[in-house]
What we know:
This protein is of the alpha/beta class. It folds into 2 domains: 2-24 and 34-242 and 386-392, Uncharacterised protein PF07075, DUF1343 (Rossmann fold), CATH 3.40.50; 251-380, no CATH class. The chain is built from 13 helices and 10 strands. The chain has helices at 2-17, 42-49, 70-76, 126-129, 149-163, 206-215, 251-260, 321-327, 332-341, 352-356, 360-366, 371-377, 379-389, and strands at residues 53-58, 80-86, 104-105, 112-115, 134-138, 166-170, 224-227, 280-283, 292-293, 311-315. The two termini are 32 Å apart. The relative contact order is 0.13.
Amino acid sequence: MLRLFQVLLFALVMVSCGGEAQAHGATEQPKRGEVLVGATDTAQYMPLLRGKRVAVLANHTAMFSSEEHIVDMMHREGINLAGIFAPEHGFRGSIEAGAIVKNSVDERTGVAILSLYTGNKKRPSDEIMRSFDILVVDMQDVGLRFYTYYITMLQIMDACADFGQQVVVLDRPNPNGHYVDGPILDMKYKSGVGWLPIPVVHGLTMGEIATMALGEGWARPVELTVVKCRNYDHTTHYTLPIAPSPNLPTQHSIYLYPSTCLFEGTVLSMGRGTEAPFEMYGHPDMRGYDFSFTPMPNAGSKTPPHSGVKCYGVDLRGVSDEEVWRNGVNIEYLVEAYRNLNMGNEFFKPVFEKLVGVEYVRQMIIDGYSAEEIKARWSDDVERFKQQRRKYLLYAE
Length: 397
């Protein structure tokens, strides 16, 4: 019976997501070829908010225009804002990964900021959940299983399901939305850096993840509306106007992140504490490399790996975007570093499996398999997931 309800619910979601935006009120009309995010299509969602107590799950990327945040726009329009939920990195996006985000008040609007990322899996209190009628989600994701914004969205969607609240996702393009790669998460490694049985690079927008989670029964049934982007599809190479988090400061770092983030599960530095995080990697004991860097505490990382110690390794800033896209999740970096350090299993940290999602990658590297052989192991996963996700796509492939 539950499955039947989910199927019917999914049909309702697809109806609410379908169709092109109609010109109405303040809705911005796209220029030919210009990608417009869901937040600009006000005709699709502002009528849902009027007369309701509205909570917003958003961060610094939720810009309504180049100069105005979505929360500021809603406040200006007289929407009754009951609270702002802040994900990892905080509402203004300035907090380092994993740090506790404290409750506070938005100085511009006087609206309470309520943290959802406090270092544990506790959801908002019942009192907070009863304080609003509808939730609006607007955050720029980067399309990776271990990037936490989608997890925060799904956790509060489950809470909304318990309290009967509607969820509205203002969609944004996925900068890594043009491909799918990496192993599907073995759910025994489910964690705060991997929540769903999806590949490392899933190729979905936030709206598509929410839709698929409902359709597959990965999230509890909730009334969902996705306000689509316009002039976007999964072949679009979308450049983010704002860095989504402190350690992804450039578009190139976002493209390399699916590969270099895996170094978080090893003894290497992945460039935190430098001017180019996730665009380099190294270790004090690596040999045969001319390139070196010294991680130091900075705004994005107070305690970077190997802080204050010179690391030798590889600078990936000269690798073209096209080559990064062509290689996808590039295990060659890991294989090369593992062989150079010759540390055996000590090369890896326990979090490695949570990031890569399966146990066989570590063992295959230790056993001497090539990057090509390791990638071939998950190729069937990729094709299976592409088929599984197809009915949930809101944009053309």
